[in-house]
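Expect chain and fold; thus:
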Amino acid sequence: MSTSLYLTQSADARPHSFKLAELLGALSYALDLTEGQPAGHCIRGCYIGTRIGEALNLPDETLRDLYYTLLLKDLGCSSNAARICELYLADDIAFKRDFKTIDTSMSAALRFVFAQTGLEAGLGERIRTLISVVQKSGKIAREVMQTRCHRGADIAGRMGFSQTVQDGILSLDEHWDGSGQPQGLKHRQIPQISGIALLAQIIDVFHAESGPEAALSEAVARSGVWFDPDLVAAFVTAQQAPDFWPLLASSDLETHVFAMTPALQSAPVDEDYLDDVAAAFADVVDAKSPFTADHSNRVTLYTDMIAEEFGLSPGHRRWLRRAALLHDLGKLAISNQVLDKPGKLDAEEWAAIKRHPAESAAILGRVAAFADIAPIACAHHERLDGKGYPHGLKGDEICLEARILTVADVFDALTAERPYRAAMPIAKALEILDADAGAAFDPACIAALKSGLAKLATTVAA
């Protein structure tokens, strides 16, 4: 098949070297979404934690591991979202955001649970849920944190980070007095970089909420309870520097973080590593809902299948596979109460769904290595007749790559189980695509998908 005139700029002409810190720092904005934190939370935490590490005179290698632990501390954050919704009948994003601002006491935690659990449920269901949560509070907290911490450490390992970074992420929620999760470690059992990362997280949350004095007060109040007193003392010293708080609030903070010593010591990122990073963040997205498990990988397979039928070059196909892997990053901003809802969405919920392609594009646009795939991700729910979203593009305004991704995405959505229906047989899914050929979907992309599926079936049969 011949390619259309709608191809974007050549994927083979792009730069081939990127800085690791800038790549991961820009992508960390996706992790901020699912934690409900103001944009730049991981960047600010990285700045705070690295300044604490410098005050401790950590060796260069340890400081570098700390730096990337801080940027990637929330890699596993999406994996407990569905379970939080199920357990607490609550918006997972708001729940996780607000939970970070309560104090350390059990009474405060219980008040929070009572205030947040089942707000939109019926009275009987809310009471049953509250009783269950209170009775099983320790087990539930351990389960939720274990899922997050182990998943984050695993993804960091697949991205090639050291065991030190993996352990730093795994033990992020451990507390100095042994009351944390997932293993109940205490004192020197807790990796130092984990303690710094949690301290930096709390400092940023309270600084964003109430300013420097509140952040300092909260850190000191939790010394010896959540935090190693030595780490709090190092923070007290670090924050006395005249530039500490002004830089934290500066619009130039990101530039400063990417110029810190650990960032400058990292080797440039090559094309193979870009593939690994795209795959890792696709896993973060797909972990958010049991109904999207492995969705991005399957969409990538179908996208590449169609691209091959069109005869796109190997470099172009590789570039397009990354767009397929990362097309749903924006879904991290949507509560699982919406993503996993079995019934019809209301107007507000549907509006949230319709924003996710633009959210994906906004995150990818921050990343020098992925900025050129942002328009493809943004357009994967557009239709040829102009009735798609988020921008209502139509006809020639939609490039070939976006048309390919759209067909691949819809085909996988139809053939996978969803909260509101069972998976469809392949033949039925293709019928639905055919019914909207020329209106929603490019007929040539549908034909390429059919051709690729037939070849796949032949290969499997052989």
